Amino acid sequence: MNVATLFTTHQQLPEKYQHMSSEEMLERIKTIKKQMGADLFIPGHHYQKDEVIQFADTSGDSLQLAQVSAKQKAKYIVFCGVHFMAETADILTNDDQKVILPDMRAGCSMADMADDKQTEEAWEQLTGMFGDTILPLTYVNSTAAIKAFVGQHGGATVTSSNAKQMVRWAFEQKQRLLFLPDQHLGRNTAVELGIPLDKMAVWDPIARKLEFDGDSEEQIRVILWKGHCSVHENFTIKNIEQVRKNHPDMNIIVHPECKYEVVQQADLAGSTKYIIETIERAPAGTKWAIGTEMNLVNRLINNHQNKKIISLNPFMCPCLTMNRIDLPHLTWALEEVSEGRNTNQISVPSAIAQNAKQALNRMLHSTR
């Protein structure tokens, strides 16, 4: 268990919910939402299943959902997303609001690729090599502990929408930056800003060493944490070649968590919000291959039937950890909060929350 988060209670899904019919669960959820009214708020991430997202009071990206949650007066925030997202919501909401994650197994493999102990060890070695020339940045897809580490060391969080702006900001502060935990977003952003690959290195937290192909470590400007998104890393050059061959008039749009070579060969790359808005604005009859999570791609297909839309990878599966939030877990979570039980509450200790909030606030201040 990450030291950044304390679980008020952590229980397994009671067996009775595994035997309920979908109709019964749907009715129970509707009833509870009506009964609790403004005391309940359900944010749902874009990657959630349709069976869950239909009950969301708002949908969006992780930081956006946490920010919207903080503006609510609801006593309970039942967050339909993954662990780090619920942590961010807890950091930004008031102390009297309770953030509930319907299934504690809903984690993020990328966020788990950087823990606080590994990061402290890396920082000690890297500052030993480069002195006080490094500023840490972390993608919001990271644990509260990593956000707190970054905040404590003068750094900030970034989103896939504002990564370029935040990398520029970082270089105004220090000569080098450490980008956690997604190497692909860091690399793609730095390249877009004109930083060549031979001025980037990768920190391997398992081997505890720097991977670098250049002539001199002194030329390194960007240190990338060796982490990745298990969904977006599965889009490949072969996928692009297949689409170009079978659909030569199809536009390819991908998320910047994809590998460098995939982003380079795609027609467009951008955040989840960018992808959604691009498809919404596209003229009827246009054709799109989308490199992002499958639940979202399927939703875009259903919502834009006047356009030809496919997944860039036809064998792509939805995000497995995100999909752990399902109808039985949502029903259980809502029945628990309706009876005043804080089962699966996400609670970030104040010291961690304070430093993490510093990192978030630096980003928000720098991107106004």
Structural class by SSE content: alpha/beta
- Per DSSP, the total helix count is 15
Query: How much helix is in the residues?
Result: 40-55%
Fill in the CATH topology of the largest domain.
Rossmann fold
- Output the radius of gyration: 21 Å
CATH architecture of the largest domain: 3-Layer(aba) Sandwich
Terminal CA distance reads 35 Å
Average residue-wise pLDDT: 94
The count of β-strands is: 17
Find the CATH superfamily of the largest domain: NadA-like
Low-confidence parts lasting 5 or more residues at pLDDT below 50? 1-9
Give a topology summary.
Layout: E1 6-7, H1 15-18, H2 22-36, E2 40-41, E3 43-45, H3 50-53, E4 58-60, H4 62-70, E5 76-78, H5 83-92, E6 98-100, H6 116-130, E7 134-139, H7 144-152, E8 156-158, H8 163-173, E9 176-180, H9 183-192, E10 200-204, E11 209-211, E12 222-225, H10 237-246, E13 251-254, H11 260-265, E14 268-269, H12 272-281, E15 287-291, H13 294-303, E16 308-311, H14 327-338, E17 345-347, H15 350-366
Parallel strand pairs: 2-5, 3-4, 5-6, 7-8, 7-9, 9-12, 10-12, 13-14, 13-15, 15-16
Antiparallel strand pairs: 1-17, 6-17, 10-11
